[in-house]
Amino acid sequence: MGLTIHYSGAINCTEDIPEFVEELADIAKSMGWTAQPINMDEAAPNFRGVIVNPQGDCEPLCFIFDREARLRALMDLICEQVEPTKYSFSTATKTQFTTIETHVWIIGLLRYLKKRYLGNLKVQDEGEYWETEDLPKLREKKEFLQGMINQMASELSQAEPLPEDATVDDIVARIEGIAQRLRDRIDE
User: Fold this and answer.
1) Is the pLDDT of residue 127 over 90?
2) How far apart are the first and last CA of the chain?
3) Under 8 Å between Cβ of 54 and 61
């Protein structure tokens, strides 16, 4: 749960990856963010690219390309999953716990990268800012989700403890029950 930006695509030309990484590292530095190049000094790596870490409580932006120039999930790099799975092309950055301004900057960065390097970039923004550029709507969605997270945390902290021999299914059932009660309150 939380505001997330999902993106997928491929770089226009694999030869542009070094320039892409260098430019993204420069942009990150100018924003006070950090950038970690990935496998740029290797001759023929399975994956190369850059991971950008915005300031604050924001998940990193991962631009990791496979040999076919496609954006790949960070987990593929970590697990050395060369052959894609159904999850390999799911790249996302959660912005729920960072500022609205950071979310907007990330959308602006993705727009620039689509124009310059990632012509087929597809973005699905749960805050709908990519699609609408409606800042009040983005704020409203973020505040709503934060309220739901806070309510869920409160309900979980007040729940009766489960027995020591509780199974995973018992834990899941408890969480689902609490979530359903919150949904029911919203629907009223």
Assistant:
1) yes
2) 21
3) yes
Per-chain mean pLDDT for the chain? 91
67 and 146, same domain (yes or no): no
Rounded alpha-carbon distances, angstroms, from residue 41 to 21, 63, 77, 161: 12, 16, 16, 52
Question: Which of 72, 63, 58, 85 has the alpha carbon at shortest distance from 4?
Answer: 58
Work out the average pLDDT over 120-138. 95
DSSP assignments along 60-73, one per residue: PEEEEEETTSBEE-
Per-residue model confidence (pLDDT) at position 84: 87
Structural domain span for residue 52? 4-133
For position 179, what pLDDT does the model report? 85
Determine the pLDDT at residue 149: 86
Over residues 1-33, the pLDDT tens digits come to 578 999 999 999 999 999 999 999 999 999 999
Q: 156 and 88 in one domain?
A: no
Domain count, the chain: 2
Residues 114 and 89 in one domain: yes
Cα angle for residues 89, 72, 59 (degrees, 5° grid):
95
Same domain, 128 and 161: no
Q: Are 9 and 120 in contact (CB under 8 A)?
A: yes
My answer on whether 107 and 175 are in the same domain is no
Distance CA 109, CA 5 (A): 12
